[in-house]
Design goal:
Blueprint (H helix, E strand, L loop, with lengths): L7 E4 L3 H12 L4 E4 L11 E5 L2 E4 L10 H13 L2 E3 L4 E5 L2 E5 L5 E3 L5 H7 L4 E2 L4 E7 L2 E6 L4 E5 L1 E5 L2 H7 L6 H5 L4 E10 L9 E5 L3 E6 L11 E7 L1 H6 L5 H16 L6 E13 L10 E2 L4 E4 L7 H24 L1
Parallel strand pairs: 1-2, 1-13, 2-9, 6-15, 13-20
Antiparallel strand pairs: 3-4, 5-8, 6-7, 10-11, 11-12, 14-17, 14-18, 15-16, 16-17, 19-20
Helix pairs in contact: 1-3, 1-8
The protein binds flavin-adenine dinucleotide (FAD).
């Protein structure tokens, strides 16, 4: 029976790669995940400056519509991996609050990496391993990393990467055309700690008519140190694209000024500030899963960008990718 099980390589330990790996591992499919960073989670990441000072600088929260993700969230809530963020979220236009958004928003605790860490805990993950080339030869996939090390003997390859990185890695395969025609917007993030509490009546705000598109009081999320007033500011996609090559110092000063301007008041002095550039933040559409799976060579693509973007899309795209392999295993058994 073991010979019917394909050996699977998954590139990328973001939420898509990990939900895929988790679902395959649950079904006893042998697999290895390759991740270029030391940590897992990709864009659901937390910058931990010191034990009591951390910032979710990528995904801010996630929402749930699908019952499969909801059942994971229920388990995660019981384990203390996830909590509902009950912060006040508003829309801000020209210094005025123009709306309040009340929907369940979930965050990882103590940081947004918590969900990835939980999915990853029993998986074989090659961390710090950037795959720079993949080849399909004699019905097997061979992966090459930056250090020139080759990983052989995989029957199936799953690419769980942002669209531009998928397009680059699979450039020789027709499936990569879908990826190369999917743009993903950049995002500059500023992480800032204020010496005194910023007096505003919200914990998160979608900002219109500004260089900023979103601001959040990170310290208002459950499980964070609420004694420090820590904020994450995200620039709009347009502003980020226009200022992609600015220095972090310039970005910090421009976005702090934009926040002061958006609320019409001076900001308190800052005890900490830094900037992070996401070259690929969000983007994507809904692509038919059959267009992302090439059975003839054992290749599947997943990631948020194939399923509407966002955490939930990424999670479900990973499950769908795993299902495409499991279906084949079940068919072979029958
Ligand atoms: C600034 C920002 C704000 C966001 N806000 C929200 C939000 O509020 N709500 C929400 O639902 N979503 C939000 N998102 C989107 C959300 O973070 C993503 O949809 C989701 O995390 C994508 O998961 P993924 O697994 O598809 O991709 P990723 O998280 O990008 O995972 C890909 C992984 O592949 C790795 N990798 C890349 N290339 C290689 C290689 N060659 N070899 C090995 N490993 C490689 C990367 O290091 C990464 O870990 C936001 C994203 C950003 C950046």
């Amino acid at each position: 029976m073991a010979s019917l099980k394909p050996k699977v390589a998954i590139i990328g330990a973001g939420i898509a790669g990990l939900s895929c790996a988790y679902h395959l591992a649950e079904n006893d499919i042998p697999l290895t995940v390759f991740e270029k960073s030391k940590g897992v989670g990709g864009r659901t990441s937390t910058r931990r400056v010191e034990p009591s000072l951390s910032f979710d600088h990528g995904a801010q929260y996630f929402t749930v519509r699908n019952p499969i993700l909801q059942s994971f969230v229920n388990t995660w809530e019981n384990l203390g991996v996830v909590s509902e963020w009950k912060g006040r979220i508003v829309k801000l236009n020209n210094k005025e609050i123009t709306g309040t958004e009340i929907i369940p928003r979930y965050v990882g605790t103590p940081g947004m990496t918590a969900m990835a860490a939980d999915l990853a805990k029993n998986l074989e993950i090659m961390r710090g391993t950037k795959i720079i080339e993949v080849k399909h030869s004699s019905n097997q996939w061979i992966l090459l990393d930056e250090a020139g090390i080759a990983y052989n003997g995989f029957d199936h390859l799953i690419a769980a990467l942002p669209a531009p990185q998928t397009a680059e890695l699979l450039a020789n395969h027709p499936i990569s055309k879908i990826a190369s025609s999917t743009p993903m917007a950049p995002c500059w993030a500023v992480l800032v700690g204020f010496e005194n509490k910023l007096e505003v009546p919200w914990d998160g705000a979608f900002i219109h008519e500004s260089a900023l598109s979103w601001v959040a009081r990170n310290s208002s999320k459950p499980g964070r140190d609420a004694t420090k007033d820590c904020w994450v500011l995200h620039a709009s996609a347009e502003w980020s694209a226009h200022h992609l090559e600015d220095t972090p110092e310039l970005v910090i000063s421009q976005l702090l000024e934009a926040y002061a301007c958006a609320i019409g008041q001076n900001l308190p002095a800052q005890f900490y500030k830094t900037a992070h550039r996401w070259r690929y933040s969000i983007g994507g559409s809904f692509i038919n899963p059959t267009d992302l799976h090439d059975e003839s060579i054992g290749l599947t693509i997943c990631g948020d960008w194939v399923n509407g973007g966002r955490f939930e899309g990424a999670f479900l795209s990973g499950i769908t990718a795993a299902e495409s392999i499991l279906k084949k295993v079940i068919t072979l058994k029958d």
